[in-house]
# Entry
Amino acid sequence: MLDKSFHDCIDVDFAWDLVKRFSGQPREKPADANRGAEIIVEQLRSSGIPVTVHEPILFLSLPGPASIEIGGKRFQAKPPAFSAIVPSGLTAPMEYMAPTRREFARHQRLDPERYRGKIVVTEGISLPMLTSEIEEMGAVGIIAVNPGERIHWSTASTIWGTPGIEAMARLPKIPSAGVNRNDGAIILAAAQRRETATIRTELEQGWFPQKLPVVHIDGAIEPDRFVFLHGHYDSWQVGVGDNGTGNACMLEVARVLWQMREKLRRSVRLAWWPGHSTGRYAGSTWYLDAHAADFAKGCIIQMNCDSPGCRWATDYSVITMMAETVYAVTALVERVTGQKPKPKRPNRSSDYTFYNIGIPGAFMASSMMPGVDIEKRGWHRVGGCGGNIAWHTEDDIMEIADRGVLSKDIALYLEAVLTFANPQVLPFDFGAAIKEISATVDAYVKAAGHRLDLGSVARALEVLAAKVGGFHKAVAEGRIAARAANEAMRELSRALVPLNYARGGPYEQDPAVTLPPVPLLSIAADLDVYDRNCIGFALATLLRGRNAALDAIDRADAAVIRAMAN
Ligand SMILES: [Zn+2]
# Structure
């Protein structure tokens, strides 16, 4: 461990107490969620930790009952958040669609009219992208056959956070509902016969004040820079493993850091989010919107804490992290768990609200059940609850939490915070980020070919890679002052994280779908799809993307030059 004295302060009882309290406290409906926040605040204040409680008004969609009716037989269903609301029912013939986007694209080309006026039946859990695509094709509803006995709660919106006025048009206009595997088998068979179904959904949608607790612990030497640890506290029903355990983990990390604050070099900020599930990350998005300059200037890294401390979750072999953090994060995971994780490129979920503004990130989930144990049980894969299929269902109750696993995850997140809060020089490796970006860009150069020359981007990255290599070497040899080195790394983050992950500007939110790497240029890989009438539009997009990419590389370059001249 970097500093054992911090770890010696860990008291799992303090965290476990919150897990127990949350196992009897639903945090789904706005009033229940607010009560959950109050409990977190009570626990923090009981340890003398100062906490600021914000109360933004968030746009939420709260799923109620839903059903599917076919030939007089009624099946129980769950509507995802942001499904259109049709309490009296919508009736239409069903049409099956295989659950892969490739399959979708093929169908669209072969038979674009196939889904018009139909209720599309497919397999899967959360289908925002599919919902928006089939809606565009004129489908009127969607039924998602879940893989297990329980229906998982999910979402249907592709909008990240509360929609801006221009994004409102993207709110889903068709109803959707999930059904379980057994009912699903009957519905799938009926869909193959193109029978008619009635889909009913009830949801409450509107604006709700939600509490958002934030703890900010000032660093002793560099208080103007902060490490950011965050996780959602709203849950489906009592959501013990997703995310009561995560809330508890952060609570104990906050307590230790507060107790040891004199030994913190930089500040640490912790936030517990509302509106994660029912607002599609509305809480974290509001907080960033309201503190954007703060993040742009001071935030070093963001780390998400979702679903740690769950039963049977002993595996740390795959951990989400951005390339520039791989060196530091794999080492810290190994220090705490003895396992060397394989890095996983973050996708667009789990309150990763900080791509556009350019904050490096690590962790979504942490401990997971070993894959063989999941297979042995015949379970399907889920992203939360450490892999327990109770995730996003009524079964996510006290038995999902595990005190021993939680204890290890607390140590893990504490070590992660200290890894970035305390060393004089930040442990980033931007050479790794540029290597990843370059590999992607090289593929795009090839894909675009003579249609649009992207060689200038590849060459600029090559030059930048050499300079950044020199920069990291100079930093390691102590030839650049720590303050100047850290400032350059902040600027490198602001330029390279968006280049690798974002399409829109620093104060915007890209849609809530995982974009291909280097999204500004990713249309290069799809140029073959566009016909003679459309290729000109696609090339216009790519040309603008090339300009923005070159600009980002320029800014990174300038940051390194400034640091080297120091
Ligand atoms: Zn979660």
Remarks:
- The mean pLDDT is 96.
- Residues 254 and 270 are 7 Å apart (CA to CA).
- Residues 232, 242-243, 306-307, 384 surround zinc ion (CB under 6 Å).
- The radius of gyration is 24 Å.
